[in-house]
Amino acid sequence: MLEIQDLSVEVGGREVLHDINISVMSGYTNVLFGPNGSGKSTLLMTIMGFSGYKVTKGRIIFNGEDITNKSVSERAQTGIGLMMQRPPNLVGVQLGNLVKIMSKGRVKAEDLAEDLNLTGFLTRDVNVGFSGGEIKRSELLQLAAQNPCFVMLDEPESGVDIVSIEKVGKKVHELIRGTSCAGKSGAVGKGALVITHTGQILDYVNADRGYVMCKGTVACTGNPRELLHEIRTKGYDECISCNIGKKTLVKVKEEGAN
Ligand SMILES: Nc1ncnc2c1ncn2[C@@H]1O[C@H](COP(=O)(O)OP(=O)(O)O)[C@@H](O)[C@H]1O
Ligand SMILES: [Mg+2]
């Protein structure tokens, strides 16, 4: 469904991503791990097509179509959606109005808000004065309204309190596993690429494949639960030389890029 081929990306005049190769098949949920600053968010922002993320090499293919040079709105219309790690405040835009536009009348904003403990937030400006966990739930609310065929989540569980985490987890599961979705690409089924720091979200989604990013490139790939276990016990240092779970992991590159 999504294929990232030899992708290198420059941000603020610096090459942040180097030679990334990742693919996600329809019906699959792949997970990205990696220490702070390894380039995970940059990758999702680039796939979504935000300006400031300059592709200097490689291609992004979505359902057989090269989308490397398409605009954010074209990518959204074709069926790609992103829950951002740090979304902007939208002063003057009420959350309820945004949700209505994004769902195109498919679902009731009030029902979605109730699912995510956000009743009462629909009349507030998007993210303005929201707490960290509220921003996460507001992002998820918008994504659920859009119901994209390819779902990208940037640390959906971080900052969410232990009571809300179950609601967030269930909503994420629903969003990823549903069969129908909004997109013009003629995609069959859904796919997902999820960044997780804590691995908590893996309790709610059936992840198929994991990648560890280090220094702007993919160091290792393997079973996501095994990867998480190795990271928890050995830390991230090992991933640079791809020593984690040697027996089970595929060595992607000889060295992390500098
Ligand atoms: N707009 C920017 N200008 C300069 N450097 C940036 C910019 N955005 C991200 N970076 C840098 O790119 C690297 C990767 O960042 P990011 O993708 O946010 O990492 P992660 O999500 O893995 O924590 C970091 O070193 C970060 O400081
Ligand atoms: Mg990030």
Textual characterization of the structure:
The chain has 258 residues and is of the alpha/beta class. It has one domain (2-251): Rossmann fold (3-Layer(aba) Sandwich), CATH 3.40.50. 29% of the residues lie in helices and 28% in strands. The protein has 8 helices and 13 strands. The chain has helices at 40-48, 72-78, 95-103, 109-115, 132-146, 164-177, 224-234, 237-240, and strands spanning 2-11, 14-24, 29-33, 53-62, 65-66, 80-83, 90-94, 125-126, 150-154, 191-195, 209-214, 217-222, 250-251. A hairpin with a 2-residue loop joins strand 1 (2-11) and strand 2. Helix 3 packs parallel to helix 5 and helix 5 (132-146) packs parallel to helix 6 (164-177). It starts with a strand and ends in a 7-residue tail after the last strand. The site of adenosine-5'-diphosphate has 13 residues, from strand 2 and helix 1.
Describe the structure concisely for a colleague.
This protein has helices at 40-48, 72-78, 95-103, 109-115, 132-146, 164-177, 224-234, 237-240, and strands spanning 2-11, 14-24, 29-33, 53-62, 65-66, 80-83, 90-94, 125-126, 150-154, 191-195, 209-214, 217-222, 250-251.
